[in-house]
Amino acid sequence: MAPNEPRPTKAQRREAARAKAKALREAEERRARRSMITRRSLIGAGALTAVGTTGWLVYDRRRDAAEAAARASSLPPAGGGIVEEKAAKKGVPSPVLADGSWTYGKASALDSIIQGAPVLDVYFDYSCHFCADFETLHAQEISALLDAGRITLALHPSDILTQDWTDMVMNAMGLVLDEAPDTALDFHTAALGFFSEVFASKDGSRLTVENLVTAATSAGVPADITGRFDKTYKNNTYGPWTVLAQESFQSRGLEGTPTVFLGGEKIDLSTLSSPTALTDLVDGLDGAGAAGGSAGAGEPTSPAAGTGEDPASAAPTE
């Protein structure tokens, strides 16, 4: 795509993601139609073949719906545990779990958990200014808790606000998680930090790939990766990840961002106004000897609904 051509709309990118997700099924449908024509030519049973193919298509659609329902039902409920299986599908970064989340353990090690430590689950949208404020206030504290091995961090993206900026960051983050994973957490913090600045400035025109590249560079993402952000975004390469994450968000009955859980308990966001509030809560869990929602025995925690806002339209407003 030439630089002066308009970027695809969000609807177009979402349609492209759905097309990727359904590619195998559509290929099978084409194979079935070819088989139908062949059988009609060979045995002159066109009517019967058409009925058979229609039945197969109905079965295939029902199977897809059943598989989606099964995926949703297999997810732990909000506050019920970290998903243990990887998503393992095209368009989803390799470290990402089956519900669209990814984790950090001791010393911010990607794709790990800390046995016996409470899980800090954070549901967020990259276009949510409350999420950006939460990250800006608590990023250093969370890093210290990870360094000390006192929590496991589970990040759960969503697309509840349906903003282009979310698509832009999710595609960039997908590339970073796959090809520069050691910089992913710093990039996550930088992207939300930049959005917080944009929201405060009320200048939505700053939400560009170029400025996202600048934020990523400040987080240590290599130039050969940031140089591919624009193409990855235009192609919506990681669109299936965004779809997966939002489906998981909805299937758990969540309604807003940020949603924060610690050790299986939903946190009242009004209690997190100080930069040491999370540490105080972890201290309380340690003192109580809490076991629920810990990373032990593969059963850490998931989040539940919080409050959200749509701040990422053309110009953020308070």
Automatic annotation (TrEMBL):
Residues 297-308 have a biased composition (Low complexity). It comes from the Bacteria. Keywords: Membrane, Transmembrane, Transmembrane helix. Residues 1-32, 289-318 are annotated as: Disordered. Residues 12-31 have a biased composition (Basic and acidic residues). The chain crosses the membrane at residues 41-59. Residues 117-271 form the Thioredoxin-like fold domain. It holds the Pfam family Thioredoxin_4. This is Disulfide bond formation protein DsbA.
